[in-house]
Design a protein that fits this description.
The complex is a heterodimer of chains A (85) and B (423).
Chain A (H helix, E strand, L loop, with lengths): L2 E5 L7 E7 L8 H5 L4 E3 L5 E3 L7 H9 L6 E5 L4 E3 L2
Antiparallel strand pairs in A: 1-2, 2-5, 3-4, 5-6
Chain B lengths: L1 E8 L3 H13 L5 E4 L15 H4 L13 H6 L2 E4 L4 E5 L4 E4 L4 E9 L4 E2 L12 E3 L3 H13 L2 E5 L3 H12 L3 E5 L12 H13 L3 E3 L3 E6 L6 E5 L3 H5 L6 E3 L2 E4 L3 E2 L16 E3 L10 E3 L4 E5 L4 E4 L3 H16 L11 E6 L2 E7 L7 E8 L4 E8 L2 E8 L5 H9 L8 H4 L12
Helix pairs in contact in B: 1-8
Classes of the chains: A alpha+beta (85), B alpha/beta (423).
Chain lengths: 85, 423
């Protein structure tokens, strides 16, 4: 399970899916600093999504952008990757 | 003299997150980033990660911003230049290429430097440090031909480097001056857990020992040791020397703030700042590893060297530089690393003082062990081995300045979900 997918169901959201690339994730935890209600680390120091709908698209995008290894990928509802661009 | 509204010294996590925040608040203010490196912003934390190091991901993935980003955001990138003097009265900055710049608002986010190793022979080719991309490239080249590596120092650089040296197939020996790994940041039990993981991963560890000389002519050929126990050395069938062709040194950092000596900017170990990231001098801010800041949650002045802290401080400094309202920096810092099948996480302030008490959670026997550090009845920080999933809960408790005197037993009981204790 190198890539872990999480489906998002917020009605005000254009983002339909969050994907964590566990091979890239190094547990820098910057995503948690931006959005601690969305992300947590597991005991292997990899980010996991625990609150897929907890924040709006802007905050979620900021969390993905903050990742120093670009391990968080965001997709729109049609399945097109919107981050990293 | 060229004049900018904003000048940022330092092109790393703190500097660029400040630049980004300034641009969000001020679309047109002129801005320059001065960096002593030629590269656009890259991921310093990736430098010591095996995926990058061993070429499992494309090299360019290290860059988090490209040149176009600077142009699009109307930021002049002044690379390969160092600031050498600051005159706050005239708001002037001198660079080492002889140029002078004028600023309205200045951010010093120069980070820290790797501490140089002052042992006889330590300037020989084959002795490496890891701080910059240049350093990383140097080690990446060296591991292609090197056979026997030695790491000096007992911290995360040694830990991560030993992991990747082993993955690259090198015979690896770690030399520690201390009696256990990461002393005194960790307790002995935690240190031994990490040592066991490394030993199982094939790393040889020599403790209570010091290198007295790096051997070889121009190139590193070995090290001479003092203090190592005879058994340690006999195992390697040598007397007091250890052959090696690569040395990686991770013995701490220095601040490099001498250039500010006559500037009037107050410094202590790092650059002193209040909770708004303002230095003692008007219109000069600081952020990142170099900032010795007033931590509102921990109620003390501290310096924190990690990626997340630098990014968050840069954000606050940038916002305060560009916006009219002031935001304080209020953040529970954390740092994690993993290797040899073990994960390590630090949250908050993990330094020890006589006023600290410790609650342990889990145990080395079950290979999952945390120390929760308390001061005045509140949690100050924690070190966690294979318990990173509890990091969020602990940082929440620090953030809330939660009184925990009445729940010490639950804090130490692994059957209690820490999240259920947050109030």
């Amino acid at each position: 399970m190198a890539k872990q997918e999480y489906t998002r169901n917020r009605s005000d959201s254009k983002i339909g899916k969050i994907v964590i690339d566990r091979d890239l994730c190094i547990g820098a935890a910057s995503c948690i600093a931006v959005s601690g209600t969305t992300f947590e680390l597991d005991d292997e120091n990899k980010a996991v999504v625990t609150g897929v709908d907890s924040v709006d698209d802007d905050t979620l995008t900021m969390a993905a952008e903050s990742c120093p290894t670009k391990a968080i990928l965001l997709f729109d509802k049609e399945g097109k990757q919107v981050f990293p661009k | 003299m060229h004049s900018y509204k904003y000048i940022i010294i330092g092109g790393g996590a703190a500097g660029i997150s400040a630049a980004e925040t300034i641009r969000q608040n001020d679309k047109d203010g002129s801005m320059a980033v001065v960096s002593d490196e030629p590269y656009p912003m890259y991921s310093r934390v990736m430098l010591s990660k095996p995926n990058f190091f061993l070429g499992k991901i494309p090299f360019d993935q290290i860059y988090l911003k490209n040149k176009k980003w600077y142009a699009d955001n109307k930021i002049d990138f002044l690379g390969s230049k160092r600031a050498i003097a600051l005159n706050p009265e005239h708001k002037e900055l001198d660079l080492d290429d002889g140029s002078h710049l004028h600023y309205e608002k200045l951010l010093i986010a120069t980070g820290v430097k790797a501490r140089k190793w002052n042992t006889e022979g330590s300037s020989k080719t084959g002795v490496h440090y890891l701080r910059s991309l240049e350093d990383g490239i140097g080690i990446m080249k060296a591991i292609k031909t090197a056979k026997k590596a030695v790491t000096i120092g007992g911290g995360f650089i040694s830990f991560e480097m030993a992991d990747l040296l082993k993955m690259a197939g090198l015979d690896t020996t770690m030399i520690l001056r201390e009696s256990y790994f990461w002393e005194p940041v960790l307790d002995e039990a935690s240190g031994l857990m990490i040592e066991n993981a490394m030993t199982n991963g094939g790393v040889k560890i020599i403790k209570n020992a010091e290198v007295t000389e790096v051997l070889g002519n121009e190139l590193v050929e070995g090290v001479r040791l003092s203090g190592a126990s005879k058994t340690d050395l006999q195992e390697r069938s040598v007397f007091d020397t250890l052959p090696c062709d690569l040395i990686i040194c991770g013995i701490g950092v220095t601040n490099g703030i001498q250039w500010l000596e006559n500037s009037g900017v107050k410094t202590n170990r790092g650059i002193s700042t209040n909770e708004f990231m303002e230095t003692s001098v008007p219109d000069v801010w600081t952020a990142g590893d170099i900032a010795e800041y007033k931590d509102l949650l921990l109620e003390e002045n501290i310096q924190m060297g990690n990626w997340v802290n630098a990014t968050e401080q840069g954000r606050v400094a940038g916002s305060n530089m560009a916006a009219s309202n002031k935001t304080p920096f209020k953040f529970v810092s954390f740092y994690t690393t993993s290797g040899f099948g073990i994960s390590i996480a630090f949250v908050g302030d993990v330094s020890l003082g006589t006023d600290r008490t410790i609650v342990t959670r889990g145990s080395p026997e079950i290979n999952s062990y945390a120390r929760i550090i308390l001061r005045n009845g509140e949690i100050e920080g924690a070190t966690m081995i294979n318990r990173s999933s509890e990091m969020n809960a602990i940082s929440k408790m620090i953030e809330k300045n939660m009184k925990v005197a009445d729940i010490l037993e639950q804090l130490g009981d692994t059957n209690t979900d820490l999240k259920s204790l947050i109030r």
